[in-house]
Amino acid sequence: MSTSGQGTDLRVCLPVPAHAIMAHLLLTDPLGYAEEEGLRLSFDIVDGPDIAVAGAGEGRYDVAVANAVFAFRMRERGAAVRAFYSTCRGVYRSFAVPVDSPISSLADLRGRRIGTDFPDLLDLAFPTLRDEGLRPEEDVTFLPRSIPIPGVAPSPEELERIASGKLDAIWVLACAYEMLLVEGAQLRRLPTRTLDRLTPSELLYAGEHMLAGNSEALARFGRAVAKASLFCDTDPEAAVRLVWEHFPEARPAAGDEAQALKRDVAGLRGRTERGLPQHGRVPAWGSITAEEIQQWEDFLLRNGGIGERHPLEEYFEPGLVDAFNDFDADAVRAQARAAGQG
């Protein structure tokens, strides 16, 4: 991070390509929210959440986004990084199976092949399966990189892998699940004993150096993210089209616009509907509570995800929430409606 008379530079690390499911972050700049907050943003793309969060702790990035499990796994590894903003509340990872599968519970996954995207997220899959009485190292076989990276359109090969039964189940992000449904995959989620009740599910992370010396910049960034999140929820189609306009790598191929719009809107809604303030223990944008973090730690400790307890304040920074929510929500909604009519 650097600061000049023209504003503050922030490097934001994404663990997935700059596609529409990341509109709540990507559109902070095109919508003018970053500029309003005196921020100049750049986005770095890396291959997976572990690299992103570790990079924030090492100072290579100012902010990273990843599943909530990394707040605990990174602390276990001694990484100097904490969460400061919740971007998604409701469960954002789940196991899913074909609709006609005989599998009805996670216990039925014993002996099965499970497709997934990033191997990093086995850090959450294994505790989830142990919570259901399985021994994941012995009872199931995970096949990383066998389903789409979140936000990216599934390939014919990936769709065939699911439809043909080469995979008995998938461990999938909610937005990717919704995009698969649009592409014709016939899937249903499996309920879990504990994971479905844990919140938040996805967080923004910053290194201790940022939290100690530049928390005001993080507060301003969180406010910009809250505004962009509200814009996306108000008119997700307008948000998708803006991502296409400003991020060329997200644009669909010629002739695929109509299907891509359905797919990207479904993926974005899969995120925005889970990120609304009313789904948190404290109904405010970005909020994280000690009670929520305690329940996460209990779950991971009970199921081998981490080895010891830590003071809860070592996982998260709760003190910026008021700043995140200090904006005119009606003005943002009006901006989104106007964009959708343009």
From TrEMBL:
It holds the Pfam family NMT1. Residues 25-239 form the SsuA/THI5-like domain. InterPro entries: NMT1/THI5 (IPR027939), SsuA/THI5 (IPR015168). GO terms for biological process: thiamine biosynthetic process. This is ABC transporter substrate-binding protein. It comes from Pseudonocardia bannensis.
